[in-house]
Write a structure and sequence with these properties.
Layout lengths: L3 H12 L3 E5 L8 H7 L6 H20 L5 E5 H5 L2 H17 L3 E8 L3 H11 L3 E3 L2 E3 L6 E4 L5 H14 L2 E7 L5 H5 L2 E2 L2 E2 H13 L9 E7 L4 H10 L3 E5 L23 E5 L1 H4 L10 H20 L1
Parallel strand pairs: 1-2, 1-12, 2-3, 3-6, 6-7, 7-10, 10-11, 11-12
Antiparallel strand pairs: 4-5, 8-9
Helix pairs in contact: 3-5, 3-12, 6-7, 9-10
This protein binds the ligand O=c1ccn([C@@H]2O[C@H](COP(=O)(O)O)[C@@H](O)[C@H]2O)c(=O)[nH]1.
Family: Belongs to the OMP decarboxylase family. Type 2 subfamily.
Protein name: Orotidine 5'-phosphate decarboxylase
Keywords: Decarboxylase, Lyase, Pyrimidine biosynthesis
Length: 305
């Protein structure tokens, strides 16, 4: 099996797209006509929830797959429905993997090393179950929070090497409050620069045949100035960039995130794609999402050409 960064690189080239669709779906944002059509009064709430949540997202994935390199599943939107949502998440991960899309689990997980290893086992590695080892979620990559320090990151990095998976470490996030801690100054550097230096160190041992590291960084689209600094520290890492559109990040600023080969980025968009029907692009939600993802893919490609 190829390294994560090689699989990502090849899929970007094959699809001619760096767009990742964020699957952040809440039931209350699914169109009424869809719910009315599929809500079955003879079933209980959770059976209806599971069916409708899976079906809506499955159809979105089918509609947009040609425009995207992968999908990013935001854990919160599944966990809010307890184990019912997690069951749907598991089914959707399998569905997306079967379509050869790059699957990123956005859980921003971490803990002390023993607990971090549990998260890593679940999402990118394998878990010992009696005399078997089971790859439960088997995603291509996971987002992690670096605040706990190196011993919490190491189990993930080791599993990236072992299972050919990827990691995206939060370096400079897209939200306005990212400045509260990430911009604190230490030794005349921002804290996020220090984190980026660590990401460089952690990724040095896992590079693919194209020279990219399997350990990448999350940098918000709303942070082009920070992106220039991060890119100078991380010349060989993929940057996962959320925050275009609704959060104010501009496609024209994506050039500041690129590496020297005008590559090395993937750009997430969630609400603008999964709820594109709200913008009345088309009366049909699948067509709306298709058009929104196609337009965004093309405008990103133009901006980074
Ligand atoms: O810095 C970060 C890190 C993660 N996110 C996540 O990305 C999507 C963004 O959704 P949009 O609807 O496209 O705004 C969401 O899942 C966030 O949890 C981020 O926004 N910023």
């Amino acid at each position: 099996m190829l390294n994560f960064s090689d699989r990502l690189f090849d899929t970007i080239k094959k699809k001619n797209s760096v767009l990742v669709a964020g699957i952040d779906t809440s039931i209350e944002n699914i169109p009424d006509y869809f719910i009315k059509k599929y809500y079955d009064k003879d079933k209980n709430e959770t059976e209806n929830l599971k069916y409708i949540l899976f079906e809506y997202n499955r159809r979105i994935i089918d509609a947009i797959e040609e425009n995207i390199v992968g999908v990013k599943f935001q854990a919160a939107f599944f966990e809010q429905y307890s184990y019912h949502g997690v069951e749907v998440l598991h089914k959707l991960i399998l569905y997306a993997k079967n379509k050869k899309l790059i699957v990123i689990f956005d859980g921003k997980r971490n803990d002390i090393s023993s607990s971090a290893k549990g998260y890593s086992n679940a999402y990118i590695g394998e878990t010992v179950v009696f005399d078997k080892k089971i790859k439960f979620f088997d995603c291509d990559a996971i987002t992690v929070n670096p605040y706990i320090g190196e011993d919490g990151i190491k189990p993930f990095v080791e599993d990236c090497e072992r299972y050919k998976k990827g990691l995206f470490v939060l370096v400079k996030t897209s939200n306005p409050s990212s400045k509260d801690f990430q911009d604190l100054s230490i030794d005349s550097k921002y804290l996020f620069e220090k984190v980026a230096e660590k990401v460089h160190e952690w990724g040095a041992g896992c590079k693919g045949k194209y020279g990219y590291s399997d350990i990448g960084a999350v940098v918000g689209a709303t942070q082009p100035d920070a992106a220039k600094l991060v890119r100078s520290i991380l010349p060989d890492s993929f940057l996962l960039i959320p925050g275009v559109g609704v959060q104010g990040g501009k496609v024209e600023d994506l050039k500041y995130f690129l590496d020297k080969n005008k590559l090395g980025i993937i750009v997430n968009s969630s609400r603008d794609i999964i709820y594109a029907y709200k913008n009345h692009i088309h009366s049909d939600f699948e067509k709306s999402s298709f058009i929104a993802s196609k337009n965004l893919k093309e405008s990103i490609n133009n901006a980074i050409a």
